[in-house]
Structures are given as C-alpha cells and as structure tokens.
Amino acid sequence: MLAHLLIKNYALIDHLELTPDPQLNIITGETGAGKSIMLGAIGLLLGSRADTKVLYNPAGKCIIEGTFDLSGYYIEHLFEEEELDFAPTCLIRREISPTGKSRAFINDTPVNLETLRRIAGQLMDIHSQHDTLLLGSNEFQLQIVDTYAQNEEVLRHYHADFQAYRKAQQVFNRLTADAVQMRKEFDYNQFLFDELEKAQLLPDEQEQLEQELLILENATDVRERLQLATEYLDNPEQSVIVFLKNAVSSLNAVSKYAPQYEQLRERAQSVYIELKDLASEISYEQDNVEIDDSRADEIRERLNLFYHLQQKHQVKTLKELIEIRQELEAKVGRVLNLDEDINKAKVIAEKAQVKLMKSAEKLSGSRKSVMAPIEKQVKTYLLELGMPNATLSIQHKTIEPSESGIDDVDFLFSANKGIKPQQLKNVASGGEFSRVMMVIKYILASKRKLPTIIFDEIDTGVSGEIAIKMGQMMREISKSHQVISITHLHQIATQGTAHYFVYKDNSADKTVSKIRKLTFDERVNEIAQMIGGSKPSEAILQNAREMLQVQMALSQKGQTNLF
C-alpha cells in the first residue's frame, strides 16, 4: 500500500506530497491540471525511463519518493533474490540530476532499473483505458488463472521441481555431448597416455641426468684436474698437508709457553684435519669418475626422449609432462566410465521428470478447475456493466513443461451476440477492455493481496448507470486493496473514501500543479460541478450532498450496495 508520495521538481510540479487513504482515493481536476503529470512521476518509481525535459527547474534535482506499507504482501523472497534488506516499510526513491543522470534506491540501497521494476511492479499497478497489452498477454492470463485458483504454494513446488529437472537434464545432456567428443578423442588420448606412462618420468630425473652426462662428456679432464688437486694437497714428498703438518709440530713445541700459542696450535691442527678430509674426498671423487661411452649414450637417449616429449606437448619440464599424463589418465578413465555415468544421470533425470510431471499435473488440474468459474463470474459482472451479450471463454491446451507449467491459456472474447469468441487482444475495444480488466481485478481482489491499483480514467465512454456500478466495484475492491482512481465521472467520485483535487496555481510567475484533499463541503461542490458545470444550482448541490451522505452511511455500515 502506498503510504506517502513525494514529488519534487517534476514537470509542472514544484513540490507535492500525498498521503493516500488505505481504501478508495478519488482524484479529479480539469483536463491539463496535472493528473497525468502525477502518473508520469509515479511511472518513474516503477522504472520508466527518465528525461531532463521533465525538470520543473532545469538547475535542480528531480526527486520522486514513495513510502510503501508491505504488510501482507509476502514478497520477502524478491528482496532476498535481489540481495536487499527487507522491512515492513519500504522506501523507493528515484532521482534525476540536471545532467540527465538517473539513480534509483530501495531502502537507501542503489539499484538498477531492472531491480526497481521487479520490486515496484509488485507494489503498484497502473491501468488505463488504453492499457490493452497486459490483458492480451497469454502469460498475464495464466497469472489470472493462478491467482484465482490461489496456486501460490502449488506453483512454488512446481518451480522447485522444474529447476531440479532442468538441472538434471542439463547434466545428462552435457555428459551425452561430452561422450561423443571424448570418444572421438579416446584413441589419441590413450596413445598419448601410454607414451608418457611408458616413459616412467620422475620430477628431478632430467636435471640429474643432464649433470651426469656433463661429467661423462668431460671425464678425462675432470680426472686430471682432481688428480692434480690431490697432489697439491697430499703428495708424500712435497704438498700443502706436509708443510702444514710441520707447522703444527712447530707450534706444538711452543704451545706450553703461552695460551695464545696453544690457540694457534689448535687452529693449525683443525686446518690440517680439514685439509686431510678434503684431500680424501677429492681422491674419492677422482676414483668415481669413469670414462663410460655406453652410459653416456644411454643418458643421451633418455634425455632425447624427454626433449621430444616436451616439444610434442609444448612444455619445458618433466613436472609439466607428469601433470599432462595425469590429465590424460583422467580423460581416458572418464571415457571408460562414461556409460556408467550417463546411465546414472539418465536415471536421475527420469526420476526428476516423473516428479515434475506429478507437480505439473497437480498445477494443471487446479487451473482447469477454476476456468469455468472464471468464465461464469466474468460473464455475470460484464452483464451488470452493460455488456449483456459478452462472452469470455478460456481456451486451454497442454504443452511441454516450461517455467510456467504445462498449460497454455488464451482468453477468447466476444462482446456481441452470435459472434464467435476470438482472442481478446484482437476483438475488444478500449472501453470493453477497461470493463473486462475491471471485472478481473474485482474477482481477484478477494483471492490475494494485490498491489496498489491506479485506474486512470478507465471509465471513459461508459454510461451513467455503468459508471455507478464501476464505482461500486472499485469501492468493493478497496475494502482489501488500496485503489486510486482518476476520473471525470461524478458517479465514481462519490464512491471515494478520500477525494483529492488537482489544480493549476497561476499566482506566481510560473504555473504550478498542486493537489489538495477535499473536505466534505468541498467534495459536495466538486461533485456538483462535475454534474452541472462550474455554477451548479442549489438542487444539484443538494443532490451531490445526498449522494455523498448515502455513500458515507453505507461505508459506516460496511456496505457497498453492489449490484
């Protein structure tokens, strides 16, 4: 329900605030006074495109703000899906800067227009005489059937089953498609895997073999250099170790004379031991260096295999080749297990389909059960609205399961006797559409919480008696749903629980559209002018007063005098 509306700097509106009544709000005023301007501003709240041309003051910011009471709407899931905080009171704001930049907010959180339309579309519904597209839509017609049947819970289960089935079917289809491609590649992948598996690759083997080959290819030089190093260090006749041994002996002789001599001796002894160990290791390495051409050839062959595989797979290390081998093993393994995986996926999809069809048939049965009552009620109320020969027939056919079920419905309509019903969008005139939409909204009002309904002069072109009945319908709807009706007919204006008057104020340099809530006496005068012109007679004024008093009395008794 719209609890408060603020419009600033929009078209002819400088500053306008409106706090609508929870029930039936009537808005009247002369043509061009600003009623359509106010609807345009509300349209911005619903996600309409913005334009800087609408700015009253081109240098200022346009702000449209609506405060909504969400009690009883059950749309928390929409806020969760859009990752918005939910609160019983919702503030929607739209801003247009002088540069043309448009911003939208829901509870002070910036949102895009798609999110704005999705949320605000559940809170307000504007219907005009020319708004024929919605009612002619098969999707909307199916929503009418679901709303009448109160299928909310059944739909929720169906949607869950449909998503589960679609996911299972996607898995099965993907596996089936992958199987075709993977089987084409299986022989080649198997060959590549076998080749890498046969190579018995180890992560550090290449570096080790390359180092060993380097030594083998330079074995003679290595042996000679190691032997020369050994002789320098440990030749029995003349070497570093012989000289160092003599130095240790000399220091040993004087170590008893002073502590520092003992320290020198110890250091010399340590160096002597270290050099003896070094000479031993060099000698050991010299003994291990062999001139082995066959081993060198064996290593070259192994390394050539590595280089070939690396070039083939466009990598540089054995580690990468090992990873490729593991991937190929997984691919080959998947192919070998494909049939089992596909069969499992098929069974899951078939079970999901069975469950889906049960939900679909339950939903379809619920829809079919209310089609005849809808046809009957629409025909009955259209008769009361001056269409005695009108016929509405709901055509149904079963389709493949989709997001909305297995049902396709088409509202077929005829306003004249002896004329075969045809698609509603093709045969109904603007006035007929208005009355059909009015009837549908009326019969749905008792089924669920509807958004705030705004009727924009949908009574255009109807007779006085029909206008009375349309007004009574609006009054009845407003008992459970907030209604705002823009009208030029006094028969409807008298039904309102609140009456607002839109007018132009020319007292300043620039015309401004304003709105004010009328008192009882002001309502009497406004309705009298709607009946008899700008200067109504006393009889007309009295008539207007009596009509309002009758409606107020009925309202206090909770009655509407409907049909």
Distance between the termini: 27 Å
Q: Which word captures the global form?
A: elongated
Tally of alpha and pi helices: 18
Overall number of strands: 15
CATH topology of the domain at 1-128 and 450-518: Rossmann fold
Which stretches of 5+ consecutive residues score pLDDT under 50? none
Strand order, largest beta sheet = 2-1-4-5-6-7
Structural class: alpha/beta
Fraction in helix: 55-70%
Q: How big is the Rg?
A: 45 Å
Biggest β-sheet strands, sense, barrel: 6 strands, antiparallel
In terms of topology, how is this protein built?
Layout: E1 2-10, E2 13-18, E3 24-28, H1 35-45, E4 62-69, H2 76-81, E5 89-96, E6 102-106, E7 109-111, H3 113-120, E8 124-128, H4 138-149, H5 152-199, H6 205-217, H7 219-234, H8 240-254, H9 259-288, H10 293-313, H11 318-336, H12 338-384, E9 391-402, E10 405-414, E11 422-423, H13 424-427, H14 430-445, E12 452-456, H15 464-477, E13 483-486, H16 490-493, E14 498-505, E15 512-517, H17 520-532, H18 538-557
Parallel strand pairs: 3-13, 3-14, 8-12, 12-13
Antiparallel strand pairs: 1-2, 1-4, 4-5, 5-6, 6-7, 9-10, 10-11, 14-15
Helix pairs in contact: 4-12, 5-11, 5-12, 6-10, 7-9, 8-9, 12-14, 14-15, 17-18
Domain RecF/RecN/SMC N-terminal: 2-506
Organism: Runella slithyformis (strain ATCC 29530 / DSM 19594 / LMG 11500 / NCIMB 11436 / LSU 4)
Function: May be involved in recombinational repair of damaged DNA.
